[in-house]
Write a structure and sequence with these properties.
four-stranded antiparallel sheet; about 10% helix
Amino acid sequence: MRMPRFSEPIRLPQAARVAVAAILLAALSLGAQEEAETPPPAEQLPSDVELVLDREGALRLNLALPRSVRPPDVGPEFLDAMSEVERTLREDLAFTQLFDVQGPEVLSAVRLSGDRARDLEQYRAYGNEVALLTEFKLEGEELILEGRMYDLASGQFILGKRFNGGIDLARRFAHAMSDEIVLYFTGRRGIALTAIAFVSDRESDGSKEIFLMDYDGHAQRRITGHVSTSLSPVWARDGSGLVYLSFFEGRPGVYWADLVTGRKTPIVAEEQPAYSPSLCPDGDSVLFARPLRANMEIFVLSRSGGAPRQLTRSSRIDTNPECSPDGTRIAFTSERSGTPQIYVMDIDGTNLQRVTYDGRYNEGASWHPDGSRLVYSRRAERGDRHDIAVFDLVTRHDQLLTTGPGSHENPSFSPNGEWIAFDSRRPGGRRHIYIMSQDGRYSRRVTTRGNNSHPSWSDYFD
């Protein structure tokens, strides 16, 4: 996967403090590049300041994002790429729920004078607090995007970034710029450059195959072509591939999809079936469930070879294992208490603890990136529908995130823990992938064709 080249940052002091939500967000002194001007010195904040976003009842930051400056006499392919960057950048920043973005349509009446201070004041007159000014340049066959962020109250420059590469990377320019802005204002990385793996039956042959898409649902592409049933994709932390379940050889087995070479290789494809695969952070240890004496137990196997090692031993079904982000614990679903509930155990199968007690049917836990929470699916008290719930392992507090019609299952946290992907079947409709904020207040559908399920959010592609 080709990536845009990032310019080396020049260290800048803290230049502005802006209010986002009900709290003050202090902008850290992060890397930026700016050749035309250097911001004046400002008070330095301690490097260990922790920024917290509280979006409940919060106001968003008003951000002016006028039309980009473009070079003259540009061919149609470059014009299309520039338009795509502008559109994607607006969508990315609006999606973060941090900004109310004023685009070119709202700002069309602004008449620029060429005087930076006077022009910034015009954007402020529209009620904006920050402005992002972008400019495109051409260098041979490469497209260059430069972005400069200004605090409109002070007129100070606060962040600058430059990206260059082929026009096929246009959307990635926008994603990268958005993530840099989110990092600057929140101290946390954005998710615009991440991806989601999922299952879809959209192919005309009736099979279920593994697909990938950008976080926002764009660039959906098929990864497997087994003309069979493939399920439960799980990312390797480094983004090099996925483990997944497939009936490709007639019985359920665990496979590896190498996203660099495109090769698909079996990991567990013996006579005895295997289900619910998961990959530990070390990239080698594969967890899965398999029937043993008419019961389902959890096993671990090295991708590099060897015999599977049994981790659970109970008289009831144990399945859906997922390793914690630090590789020390496993969350899984077990019926050992009489109904499916979420349990946690150490990586070697010891120190077993039951986690969920609310609800009669809980399954499919996924870890928050910091290991403090589990998100899972809970069957409603009546009927066969499910909702998404989250359990805090520190406070022991359980919170239901979805309510109302439809059935919502298979949740997966984004790598920054701010968002959750899940699949949902609304009454009378198909099953689709949605992403929602971690508090359940905002959700968005990101698939449109066929039935889609089992989303797995990637880590960052460093």
